[in-house]
Amino acid sequence: MTEHGSISGGPGFLARDRLQALIDGILAAGYACLGPKVRDGAILYEPLDNAAELPVGVRDRQIPGQYRLECGDGPRCFAWATGPQALKPHLFAPREVLWRAERGPDGRIVFSDPQAGVKPVALFGARACDLAALRLQDRHFLEGPYPDPHYAARRRKLLVVAVNCSHPAQTCFCASTGDGPHASAGYDLALTEFDDGFVIHAGSATGARLVEPLRLSAATPAQREAQARQAEQAAQSQSRSLPSRNLRSALFANLEHPRWSDVAERCLSCGNCTSVCPTCFCHSEAEELDLGGARSEHVRQWDSCFTAGHGYMNGHQVRPDTRTRYRQWLTHKLGGWHDQYGRSGCVGCGRCIAWCPAEIDLTEEAAAICGASA
Fold first, then answer.
1. For residue 178, is it within any domain?
2. Of the candidates 346, 349, 348, which has an alpha carbon nearest to the alpha carbon of residue 86?
3. Tens-digit pLDDT profile for residues 345-370
4. Are residues 67 and 177 in the same domain?
5. What is the pTM of this model?
6. 3 in a domain, yes or no?
7. pLDDT (tens digit, 9 = 90+) per residue, 1-53?
8. Whether 269 and 212 share a structural domain
9. CB of 233 within 8 A of CB of 167?
10. Are residues 228 and 258 part of one domain?
């Protein structure tokens, strides 16, 4: 986690043909760089050492229940909204061993931490909504009475290069949650892309050190004006929104609303929404023993409030059906998080809408349930 503060000098301009120099500088600083690449019909964060590997000319088309990539001829590498991944998988691992226990030659049990030696990682291309999600994940994993050491080890060594969103998808609604489309905090470097290059801001001392060798020219007033105009256009292009940024009272006043049964008839309880959500943190833990009985591993892996096991408590299933499971997810995400973290758990990325096979739209359900109570 790099130090953030006021960086003097203002934004600079990075010509497109010098993007490789920025990536080279990140690699030379000892970071493994992860950036967006096209794989299996989606944009995913993969190891990146060459700017030519970025998704040049690629656009995404996202509507409820559908995610498609389309290829064009433009020079831009970031003219898409979001892929199925956010920052979460690189900090809160989908599956990891928390500790290992082994029986030594003398019969004693020895515990070890398999997470030693975490390497620095630079994530290139983070969106504003995902930076907001990162702040929420930090609050959950780092700011409580018992900080998670595994998350903390990866977080300390994360460098974030954000790219402001210029082409929101039809499923995006970050403007209504106040989390985008322009990044305002939480990054080491933030880029705004144009056809000929990038306006680049340093958001930390580490970010400033990385761009210093590039000797950037100062962004011109016209470029800064174009940056502001592009951010405004991206916000205005979003057609979806939540009824309010705080739906706590409205949701808990409508726990028996008939819409819960309506959505349950469509919902598959597949957990896709929680898997792609950049803020969900539900998980399960289990002991896994080897066949010889000499070693066991304590494993943590992602879980979902849509699974039967998640609602099983003390011999009783507290959420026995899809209706109660969807209600738990929505009321916690948009309501209960205000009690825990002082804000909603939704950052408006729209992933849950695009990746729902039943085409369920969170904004539509929230509006139907809250109505005039919002």
1. yes
2. 349
3. 999 999 999 999 999 999 999 999 99
4. yes
5. 0.92
6. no
7. 444 333 446 899 999 999 999 999 999 999 999 999 999 999 999 999 999 99
8. no
9. no
10. no
